[in-house]
């Protein structure tokens, strides 16, 4: 199943050399890129907080050199993927410690330190990393620590109660807490993130409650202005956010690669969960086709991933610099879950990885990765996002059928706890209704009551 017929080489000599048809070449390149990514991590040093990147305690994505909490969560997932791709266990213990240390007092990735900017999207990225662990049988922490699967289930149970039917006919607000800026917005990464979380839990556990919920989130997004198809070009748009203060009648017209990635892979898991339904196959193909036209522009040959809104002018913020990492991983997962997509996905991952390698020739070490994979001249930028995106796209070329996400029926060993976190003190529902798709409980309002002592915070748009 490994894709190898084409050999993509960076156009010029690069400090990170990569032959995407060679497993050992990818192992060697990803090892260097991962090492440089981890040079930014200090959470394992005395006096530092495990799991966090610099700046994660007061996040502002416009400050160079600092990283929001969610991105640290995503980084641990990238390292689980790296281990799965290469068998290199170097970062496993750091990853286990990080994912457990940041799980919060209720084991649901809602640590009070992060309340001032806690979004549904931020939380779900940590859950994604726990799910990556489940799907690859990444070692459990053991002892009294919660299983990877139960951590993701606890996030599902927490977020379930944030569903807000009182405005816009449903959907998740971006922010968990009403005192944070952005609480009025309903955005695609929060809704699409929860959609993916639900679809993966359905796939892993076979429990149709999760599948019903994924359908509900998709249906709401489709009925909202977040998902739109251009009648002339056929382009499928996943817009950034819509405003509940206007009952979601307007929409912010920005497109980000990670929004396409999260909806794509969620649809791929649902394709599997529905036994290969035409409905979900069509959704996978629809998203994929527009992912190609928007984020793999013909201008650069049509196979190199490109962050449309900000890459060319190099004004991506700290969050945005990492987005291509997620699209790469989620395309690779899709190529396995929906095998008919592999033929078009694999050449794009190969060419993008070669482009990324060409861009990893900067900095004082001569192998620092920039953002612009479409040119082999280092763009002068550096950071965790750039390293993670390069790591993820290179590693994704090692994704094979053998690495097909595991389920509880096909060898995943993480322990399921569908009721994880249900009774947790921080759970938004004071009194819970049974979880059903016909749920009408206006539980979102109750979040206001939680941790309302932590006023005065500000939050930052995740784009
Ligand atoms: C990783 O280990 C597995 C199991 O031993 C093996 O099948 C696989 O080929 C290894 N992968 C790499 C990239 O070395
Ligand atoms: C990880 O930690 C375990 C338990 O503390 C230890 O036995 C193991 O050697 C560590 N592995 C690595 C790769 O450091
Ligand atoms: C929260 O912040 C405090 C103070 O910096 C720190 O001691 C603690 O370890 C942090 N906890 C988490 C989960 O980040
Ligand atoms: C808000 O939007 C929802 C969904 O479109 C609609 O059902 C509802 O009637 C709208 N509410 C108001 C007050 O316009
Ligand atoms: C998929 O197939 C299985 C086994 O035939 C069946 O039990 C299940 O209900 C099917 N799922 C859906 C969503 O059709
Ligand atoms: C769905 O995934 C499971 C587990 O990986 C696999 O056994 C099954 O064949 C897949 N079904 C479809 C329709 O692809
Ligand atoms: C996606 O694009 C392919 C190739 O152009 C086309 O054959 C297919 O019909 C498209 N699928 C959808 C659902 O748009
Ligand atoms: C399925 O998931 C729901 C929601 O978490 C839970 O209430 C239910 O007990 C689960 N069912 C099984 C059979 O695990």
UniProtKB/TrEMBL annotation:
<dbReference type="InterPro" id="IPR014480">
    <property type="entry name" value="Mannan-1_6-alpha_mannosidase"/>
</dbReference>
<protein>
    <recommendedName>
        <fullName>Mannan endo-1,6-alpha-mannosidase</fullName>
        <ecNumber>3.2.1.101</ecNumber>
    </recommendedName>
</protein>
<feature type="transmembrane region" description="Helical">
    <location>
        <begin position="441"/>
        <end position="462"/>
    </location>
</feature>
<keyword id="KW-0326">Glycosidase</keyword>
<keyword id="KW-0732">Signal</keyword>
<keyword id="KW-0325">Glycoprotein</keyword>
<dbReference type="GO" id="GO:0016052">
    <property type="term" value="P:carbohydrate catabolic process"/>
</dbReference>
<keyword id="KW-0378">Hydrolase</keyword>
<dbReference type="InterPro" id="IPR008928">
    <property type="entry name" value="6-hairpin_glycosidase_sf"/>
</dbReference>
<dbReference type="GO" id="GO:0012505">
    <property type="term" value="C:endomembrane system"/>
</dbReference>
<keyword id="KW-0472">Membrane</keyword>
<dbReference type="GO" id="GO:0008496">
    <property type="term" value="F:mannan endo-1,6-alpha-mannosidase activity"/>
</dbReference>
<dbReference type="Pfam" id="PF03663">
    <property type="entry name" value="Glyco_hydro_76"/>
</dbReference>
<keyword id="KW-1133">Transmembrane helix</keyword>
<keyword id="KW-0812">Transmembrane</keyword>
<feature type="signal peptide">
    <location>
        <begin position="1"/>
        <end position="15"/>
    </location>
</feature>
<comment type="similarity">
    <text>Belongs to the glycosyl hydrolase 76 family.</text>
</comment>
<dbReference type="GO" id="GO:0009272">
    <property type="term" value="P:fungal-type cell wall biogenesis"/>
</dbReference>
<feature type="region of interest" description="Disordered">
    <location>
        <begin position="409"/>
        <end position="433"/>
    </location>
</feature>
<dbReference type="InterPro" id="IPR005198">
    <property type="entry name" value="Glyco_hydro_76"/>
</dbReference>
């Amino acid at each position: 199943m490994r894709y190898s017929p084409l050999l993509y080489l960076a156009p010029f000599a690069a400090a990170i050399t990569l032959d995407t048809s060679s497993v050992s070449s990818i192992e060697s390149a990803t090892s260097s890129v991962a090492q440089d990514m981890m040079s930014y991590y200090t959470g394992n040093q005395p006096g530092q907080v495990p799991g966090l990147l610099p700046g994660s305690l007061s996040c502002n994505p416009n400050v160079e050199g600092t990283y929001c909490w969610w991105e640290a969560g995503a980084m641990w997932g990238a390292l689980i993927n790296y281990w799965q791709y290469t068998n290199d266990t170097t970062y496993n213990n750091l990853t286990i410690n990080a994912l457990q240390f940041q799980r919060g007092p209720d084991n649901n990735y809602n640590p009070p330190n992060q309340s001032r900017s806690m979004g549904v999207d931020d939380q779900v990225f940590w859950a994604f990393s726990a799910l990556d662990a489940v799907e690859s049988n990444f070692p459990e922490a053991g002892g009294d620590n919660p299983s990877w699967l139960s951590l993701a289930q606890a996030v599902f149970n927490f977020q379930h109660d944030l569903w807000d039917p009182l405005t816009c006919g449903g959907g998740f607000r971006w922010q968990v807490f009403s005192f944070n800026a952005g609480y009025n917005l309903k955005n695609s990464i929060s809704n699409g993130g929860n959609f993916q979380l639900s679809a993966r839990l359905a796939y892993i556990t076979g429990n149709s409650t999760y599948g019903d919920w994924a359908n509900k989130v998709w249906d709401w997004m489709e009925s909202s202005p977040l998902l739109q198809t251009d009648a002339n070009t056929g382009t499928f748009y996943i817009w950034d956010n819509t405003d509940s203060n206007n009952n979601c009648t307007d929409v912010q017209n920005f497109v980000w690669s990670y929004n396409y990635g999260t909806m794509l892979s969620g649809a791929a898991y649902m394709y599997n969960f529905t036994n290969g339904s035409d409905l979900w196959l069509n959704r996978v193909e629809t998203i994929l086709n527009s992912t190609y036209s928007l984020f793999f522009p013909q201008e650069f040959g049509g196979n190199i991933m490109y962050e449309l809104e900000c890459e060319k002018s190099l004004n991506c913020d700290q969050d945005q610099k990492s987005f291509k990492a997620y699209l790469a991983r989620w395309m690779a997962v899709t190529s396995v879950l929906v095998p008919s997509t592999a033929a078009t996905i694999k050449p794009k991952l190969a060419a993008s990885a070669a482009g990324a390698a060409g861009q990893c020739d900067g900095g004082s070490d001569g192998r620092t990765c920039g953002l612009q994979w479409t040119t082999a001249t280092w763009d002068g930028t550096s950071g965790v996002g750039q390293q993670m995106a390069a790591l993820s796209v290179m590693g994704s070329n090692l994704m094979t059928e053998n690495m097909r996400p595991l389920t509880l029926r096909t060898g995943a060993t993480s322990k399921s706890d569908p009721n994880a976190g249900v009774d947790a003190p921080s759970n938004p529902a004071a009194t819970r209704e049974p979880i059903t798709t016909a749920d009408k409980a206006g539980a979102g309002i109750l979040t206001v009551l939680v941790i309302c002592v932590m006023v005065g915070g500000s939050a930052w748009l995740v784009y």
